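Lab manual, section 2.4: Encoding a predicted structure.

Procedure: take the sequence of the chain (683 residues), apply the prediction step described in section 2.3, and record the output as structure tokens. A sample record is shown.
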Amino acid sequence: MIDTAAPLASPSAYADAVATAVQAAAAYYADGSTPLGDDEYDALLRSIAAYESAHPGQALPDSPTGKVAGGAVTGDVPHSVPMLSLDNVFSAEELESWAAGLERRLGRPVAAWCVEPKLDGLAIAARYRAGRLQQVITRGDGLAGEDITHAADAILGLPAELTEPADIELRGEVLLTQDQFEHANRVRADHGATPFANPRNGAAGTLRAKDRPYRIELTFFAYDAIGPEDLAHSALLEHLAALGANTAATTAARPQHCAGTTEVQQRIEEIAALRAELPFGIDGVVVKADLAADRAEAGSGSRAPRWAVARKLAAQHKVTRLLGVEWNVGRTGIIAPRAVLEPVVIDGVTVTFATLHNPADIERRGLMIGDQVFVYRAGDVIPRVEAPVLDARTGAEQPIAFPEACPRCGDAIDTTEQRWRCIRGRNCQAVASVLYAAGRDQLDIEGLGGTRAVQLVEAGLVADLADLFTLTREQLLTLERMGETSADNLLAAIAAARTQPLNRVFCALGIRGTGRTMSRRIAAHFGGMAAIRAADAESLAGVDGIGTEKARVVAAELADLAPLLDRLAALGVGTAVTAPAATATAAGESGTGDTGGDGGPLAGEAVVVTGSMTGALADLSRNQMNELIERAGGKASSSVSKRTTLLVAGEKAGSKRAKAEELGIRILTPEEFATLVASHLSA
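Recorded output:
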């Protein structure tokens, strides 16, 4: 394989590089299934351009340099005005140099800039006559594209009719948002089709597909238009939005007018920081001269305009080799596969492992050991394997072997659901279950860490959560490195855990499909452990956000845990009873029946907390903050949306604050919030 980052030292190396680039570009612009990641492709193009610059007489006719889409695609529908690509820069220094070059060409400073996200999709042109959509065309080679009007009704944000009877050609990007991508792969799996490798691959395949027995929706973002003249770019985007077209102004990474390159660099950093939270992929940030006069004077080359450039960001998708699959057993007995990868650097992080959800997911994706695979990582999210590069298979790949017995204890495996599970359940991983139950956000048993949990389980003193509450001083003193003071402290922490509220005890059970937030909602809804145990799947589905499928899982788990719950009740753990939320609402004591609140100062509020808390809230964990919100009558959430009514913004609040400001959501400092909920702080 070509070393995409290496200088090309000979004509043969140059010819091989051109052939590799042409092949990669053809796959990329056809259906996104390129054998190279974005970083590798960009590095290869730079190597080719450097060789051609040093050897001007040796440039091959099929070289991708200077060509729209690398010369990989064509079309039969001519564009009214050439639809060009963008030149790329890869650092702040390169951007400064590019901007200085543009100003030298103009003989004066650029009056203003517009900075916007570079969306990772496919460029299209949409032609309107008298405000009605007539034709949709791909970019193709920039001079002519492919007619894809048949796909228009599935593209959200591309209106069939504008708000004015204008003759105009919208230009923009069509992509799959992350939600649309995941939905698309579920639909394809239901129809026996191979999952898309990544969102761009999915968008390319969907736009060109005809006569499918299923529908996949995409999203359009307008970034330019042919028709309106003499408008600043920022004003043009506002005009397109007024016509009814979707633009990036609807996102946290909205286009921004900048007065100079210092502001430009700052906005680039802001958009890059938002990247992990955006609902779609971006592979860079576009910087454009804002004023029409500057753009007209700068002009365009054969491939790209001279007044715009893409500041590329490190790729979040990479291609690497699947070396193997490990099967790990979680605390509830779930057997989870994990991909072992040939090390690859994604967005500055070396990745050697990635998520594989379950055996059915592996089969749907058609993965094999030895495959070249697309790996995706966004922000701090655990990397995941998306799909194999089928064209890169050599025939030496081997099927992935699924376990026939529990890899930890050797007992049988329950394969009746998509996520396989050891038939011993959480008893297969007693140490993990005990550690989880003792955690700060569950029972908060100080002194019960990993080493101590292993000792207790291996000594036969603890097999489940209830055994913790039967421990004696004499038993603890038999453990290695357990002195009298340590034993007394641990017993005191266990005794304190008996009085933890219902939601924490329920959370400590580690029931599949529940966590801290859902445990609070279940506890608030039913008011007591006896009521929770008596609830069937239909009753559990009445809890806000639980859904029928999760309710079925929780009901089954509660049935399995009946003996443990009996023992806990006999030991006085989790026996506290409060008025269920539904009862409180009926009695007029709560305006938020699903929040667990008491009609307090946050009644009816949907609250998100972000940044570092200060003042009276400084020592509260995020879970404790969420508990405080719900005690005060509100509903805690982790993400800002149109349903959010209040944001508590601490230090370094970041993108959530920006999105709240964009949506006009009320924002309080930690000190202001503490004053608002003062009566509930000590609860």
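Check your result against the sample. The chain has five domains: 11-71, 77-312, 317-414, 425-497, 592-683.
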